[in-house]
Amino acid sequence: MFRRLPTFTSLLLTVVLSASCALRAEFKLEEASIASIQGAILAKEVTSTDLVKGYLTRIKAYNGTAVKEPEGILGVIETIPRAGKINALGTLNLRPATLKAWGFPAKMARSLTDSVDAAPAMLDALEVAAAQDAHFAKTGKLIGPLHGVVMAIKDQYDTVDMRTTAGADVPYANDRPPVDATFVKRLRDAGAILLAKAQMGEYASGIPRSAWGGTFNNPYDTERSPMGSSSGSGSAVAANLVTVSIGEESGTSIRGPAVYNNLVGIAATQELVSRHGMIEGGINTRTGPIARSVDDAARILDIIAGYDPLDPMTAASARRLPPKPYHTYTGTKRLDGIRIGVMREYTHRKLFTEEDTQALDLFEKALGDLKALGATLIDPGEGDLLTPYVRKNFYVLYSPAMAKKFPELFPVDDAGKPTTDRAATVLDMTMDPTKVPPALTIREFPTVQATGQSKHMLGYYLRMRDDPKIKTIKDLHEQAVFFKDERFGDRRAGLLRKDRDTEVDNSARVHLRYAVQYIVLNAMADLNLDVIVSPTNNIPAPKLGSPRVPVKNGRPLVWSFIGAQGMPNMTVPAGFTTEVYDRVVDPDKPRIPVTGPNAEPGETEPQSKLVGPVPAKLPVGIDFLGRPFDEPTLLTVAAAYEAATKHRMPPPDFGPVK
Questions:
Q1: 572: number of CA atoms within 13 Å, CB side?
Q2: For residue 118, what are the CA distances in angstroms to 92, 131, 430?
Q3: Taking the mean position of all CA atoms in its chain, how far away is CA 101?
Q4: Is residue 245 part of a domain?
Q5: Does 280 reside within a domain?
Q6: Each residue's pLDDT tens digit, 35-76
Q7: Nearest Cα to 563, choosing from 534, 527, 594?
Q8: Looking at 20-34, 429-443, 477-491, which range is the least confident one?
Q9: DSSP 3-state of 152
Q10: Mean pLDDT of all residues in the chain?
Q11: Can you give the pLDDT at residue 55?
Q12: CB 190 within 8 A of CB 144
């Protein structure tokens, strides 16, 4: 839309290059919602240019490096208490002269391979804002449903006007991709102002660090993690550096950064939002909004949802969008008649440790709040919500990977060949579900890998990008720069691991996805449930660089398994801890082998021990999960809970800029 606008006059350029910001007294930028922003624009209390300058002022104040780097950006880091900065945004959508006038580092330029950056059709954020202001002055109308909404986009997604490298320090010949991701174009066409690319864990690794961007910090405690690969997308919204942002989730990287930063995150139905135009998408990759309110998140979903012929998975969304916009479902205040299943598999105290205590206490309070709103809770108490349906549907769930988990039921000889009639064993379990191992709950499902998926999707992206210099995964790991701090993993090794695959086999992941949806939908139908509720996280944000939290009875940092199978889920703030337990290296115990699908042969890590409790006010969230394409029900429940509890609080160290 904006690229078709005529070249601006010198008067407009003078306005654009001004580094001053004077938001009008009637309007408060901090915690501003989409509705309040647009109301203020219509009331002529603020302009799009005012908004962009206001956010730039906050970025200038709060976005710097927040750790000590005695060995440089690639070496071992040291945390800083109350650093006052979070390093959430890596690239700004400003022309070179404007970037310099504002005093931002040259590294934040929207391109480092196009130092002139003078293409008149490729407007920067301030120029887009000025165009919106001109349109409003002439017509008295907003240019689109996202007029004045200032956004950050995870660096994993292509933006034609800003560099895109998935957080990596890679010498592309052209660091800007040739076209926008599909959803990015939809946002632009709706009037969104794309101000920045958000920092991310390199190549979507679940760490708050990259070779390009450095280390990322949590605004509620700058010594702690902002969580997951979409780190900057979460912390930037939490600290009011942008209005809303976009994250990506294969496991937890929408809801994880949302919960660690006291935000709302929607990981929608897998087939609802296009993955086209991203670095290394996958079968279970989901794109979604991270926002300060349910309504803001729903308004972004309104724009990015729907069929995209460039992503065939979204064909399943055709004719399945709701009859009304998503944001119209966020006004309900009561939940009378709503039936909510309680996911007790994630809350049994005896299964976990003192680390989990306060988050689970807050979850119990949230259940009381939902009940007070009129919801009917289907609570199995000391039992499990889904385990009866896991046992009932074991035949659907069974696979060779599952058999390996229970060798006593499915024995093999020395060559690994089955020694019993497995079909007969599975039939016996179908006829008598009590024969299914009691240990098999939704927490302990085996991890499955999509062999060759990463190699295929990353290779596909590189071919589509068609950069003259970086053409293959080999080019990436041979020409890029990588950080060296074992506490945050080895990203070069990760690329090499992806490149080793010589087969593409998605069957195990597709089967698991089908089986889990089958089981969950069976339970929801049988119990007549509208949604399922669970904690988003049992473990509050850990310290940066601290030892990995061991998986305890299937409990990760952020619960993610069911949603990762393509079902829609979202997190909403549920309160704050007062104290937490942290993990430190245990010097009295030897190093142990690293386990998991991404472990390298011979790789080891230190063992850890708990210390604490220590005072810490850290966010906790509640998760709502629903049927595929039933986002309206999720939004209804989440919005009513949000309105009744009001747990969203801005980080106290990142208030208005003086």
A1: 28
A2: 15, 17, 67
A3: 33
A4: yes
A5: yes
A6: 999 999 999 999 999 999 999 999 999 999 999 999 999 999
A7: 534
A8: 20-34
A9: strand
A10: 93
A11: 98
A12: yes
Find the domain containing 191 and state its range: 2-16+29-310
The rounded distance, in Å, linking the Cα atoms of 323 and 182 is 23
**111: CB partners within 8 A, 6+ apart:** 117, 162, 163, 174, 175, 176
Residue 492: which residues within 8 A CB-CB, separation 6 or more?
Answer: 477, 480, 482
Q: What does the DSSP assignment read for 552-617?
A: BTTB-SS--TTGGGT--EEEEEEEE-SEEEEEEE-TTS--EE--STTPPTT-EE--EEEEEEEE--
What are the CA-CA distances from residue 497 to residues 158, 361, 453, 476 (Å)?
A: 24, 41, 12, 13
Q: Cβ distance 648 to 622 under 8 Å?
A: no
Find residue 92's DSSP bridge partners: 196
3-state secondary structure string across 441-499: CCCCCCCCCCECHHHHHHHHHHHHHCCCCCCCHHHHHHHCECCCCHHHCCHHHHHHHHH
Number of domains in the chain: 1
Question: What local confidence, expressed as pLDDT, does residue 597 receive?
Answer: 65
Decide if 299 is inside a domain: yes
Per the domain annotation, does 485 fall within a domain? no
Q: How far is CA 42 from CA 107, 535, 614, in A?
A: 36, 39, 47
State in Å, rounded, how far the first CA of the chain is from the last one: 36
Type of residue at 346: Y
Separation between Cα atoms, residue 177 and residue 181, nearest integer Å: 9
CATH number for the domain including 136?
A: 3.90.1300.10
Residue 478 CB contacts under 8 Å (≥ 6 apart), including other chains: none
Cα 527 to Cα 521: distance, rounded to the nearest angstrom: 10
| Cis peptide, bond prior to residue 613, ω within 30 of zero | yes
CB atoms within 10 A of CB 507: 11
Q: Print burial letters for 233-244: b (CB count within 10 Å at least 16), e (below 16).
A: bbbbbbbbbbbb
Q: Which two tokens stand for residue 471?
A: 């053409």
d(CA 268, CA 629): 8
Average of per-residue pLDDT across 247-254: 92
Those residues with Cβ within 8 angstroms of residue 151's Cβ, 6 or more apart along the chain or in another chain: 187, 192, 193, 194, 195, 242, 243, 244, 245, 246
Q: Check: CB of residue 440 under 8 Å from CB of residue 391.
A: yes
Q: Are strands 608-615 and 78-79 parallel, antiparallel or unpaired?
A: unpaired
Catalytic residues: 154, 229, 253
Give the integer Cα–Cα distance in Å for 516 and 394.
11
